[in-house]
Design goal:
The chain is mostly helical and about 200 residues long. The protein contains 11 helices and no strands. The chain folds into 2 domains: about 45 residues, Homeodomain-like (Arc Repressor Mutant, subunit A, Orthogonal Bundle); about 140 residues, Orthogonal Bundle (Tetracycline Repressor, domain 2).
Length: about 200
């Protein structure tokens, strides 16, 4: 077994992410991560005191990938960049993505992306007292949409369920041709545009 150096925290989190991607979150343990990295489980405790801290670090690692590359963009462009990056992240790591809905970001990386969301909303003219609430509204929509896609709720199979479940319901029959979109990308873009208008009406 080899010793970990101070720069190995990213390696630990990458190993945790790989395990969760391959075998699901239920397979993630300090022992499994230690085996993947090639150290004893005790060696990990200098970095993460327990599995909860490891999961917090994993959330921060994922959130760090959502930060816009160009801080000089308009507030709409910054919010849009984070939203589309969130959707990509869900597709790349479907087993791990639910953690973003289950755990509050507590690491510097996690706080940074939320702070960028706050700043975009401030730049949009949202009153300071309303910024946290509006951020939760936007984040919950984006993460919920992304999770619905990777879980199968938004899928071709769900189209048949939506059509069949309302065969005897009048509103369902009336809306039959509109119940499931042909293009989920277009729906996501339209939903984001609606949110932007709520945040700052044109």
């Amino acid at each position: 077994m080899r010793k970990l150096k101070t720069s190995r925290q990213p390696e630990i989190l990458d190993a945790a992410l790989a395990i969760a991607d391959e075998r699901g979150l239920e397979a993630l343990s300090m022992r499994a991560v230690a085996e993947r990295v090639g150290v004893t489980p005790m060696a990990l405790y200098g970095y993460f005191r327990n599995k909860d801290e490891l999961l917090d670090g994993l959330v921060g690692r994922l959130l760090d990938r959502l930060a816009p590359d160009d801080p000089g963009q308009t507030w709409q462009e910054r919010l849009g960049a984070i939203a589309w990056a969130t959707r990509r992240l869900a597709r790349e790591h479907p087993s791990v993505f639910p953690l973003l809905l289950l755990r509050t970001s507590a690491t510097p990386d996690g706080v940074q992306v939320v702070d960028q969301l706050y700043q975009a909303l401030l730049d949009a003219g949202v009153p300071e007292a309303d910024v946290p609430r509006v951020e939760r509204l936007v984040s919950t929509f984006v993460m919920g949409f992304a999770l619905s896609e990777v879980s199968g709720r938004f899928s071709d199979a769900s189209r048949d369920i939506r059509l069949s479940r309302g065969a005897d319901a009048p509103a369902h029959r009336r809306l039959a041709e509109h119940l499931t979109p042909d293009d989920w990308d277009a729906e996501f873009a339209a939903d984001l545009a609606d949110l932007m208008r709520i945040i700052r009406p044109v």
